[in-house]
Design a protein that fits this description.
The protein has six helices and nine strands. The chain has helices at 25-28, 31-35, 57-71, 89-95, 128-138, 175-184; strands at 4-5, 20-21, 38-41, 77-78, 105-107, 116-120, 145-149, 154-157, 161-165. Helix 5 (128-138) links the parallel strand 6 (116-120) and strand 7.
């Protein structure tokens, strides 16, 4: 299964674009697939993150816009909102608006992480459906990832795995374990693998 980020410009009053053309195969995946995603400790071998992969500004901001769509169902996002994808970066930047000065999820708005979007927030905002939605977004986008800096630790979300960083997530082996650790702030895992 493969998909790419393809910018598409529409002509409406603000000319916002819904810019992903994704395979319908993504919709065929069942929720059970995401429940069985590998949750493992961070290691260089497992981390497919590569800052040197090339992409356009439209691809990166399109991906970020979709991440914002997901996050906005679980809290406020910002500081910058979704970037309209217009003909040029300058045109897009000129009409790009901020959303929240103190968002629940601070979503980095500059393209310094390659094929990844960085999110900063409190771990209590992490819900299983949030992780599942990010996994569904990433399913056809194997070169892309989302990094969640959660004060007590970090989560790298890829299309087929979630890598955790920090002692806070030690011994977590499922999305449910990650959620319980975040929700309860527990120092011990909810289950042993």
């Amino acid at each position: 299964m493969s998909a790419s980020l393809t910018p598409v410009t529409t002509r409406n009053s603000v000319r916002h674009a819904n810019v992903f053309e994704m395979s319908e195969q993504r919709r065929d995946n069942s929720a059970e697939q995401y429940l069985a995603v590998r949750v493992i400790a961070f290691s260089r071998e497992e981390c497919a993150f590569d800052k040197t992969r090339e992409h356009t500004w439209q691809e990166w901001h399109s991906f970020r816009n979709h991440v914002l769509d997901i996050l906005s169902r679980y809290g406020s996002v910002g500081q910058m909102g979704k970037m309209p994808i217009l003909d040029t970066y300058e045109e897009s930047n000129d009409v790009w608006e901020s959303t929240s000065k103190r968002p629940d999820f601070f979503v980095v708005d500059d393209d310094m992480y390659g094929h990844s979007v960085r999110i900063e927030g409190d771990c209590t905002l992490v819900k299983p459906m949030l992780l599942h939605e990010l996994l569904m977004l990433l399913a056809p986008l194997r070169d892309w990832s989302v990094y969640m800096a959660l004060i007590k630790g970090g989560l790298w979300v890829f299309h087929d795995r979630i890598l955790f960083e920090g002692n806070f997530f030690a011994d977590c082996c499922s999305v449910t374990d990650l959620y319980h650790r975040c929700a309860l702030g527990a120092d011990t895992p909810t289950s042993k693998c």
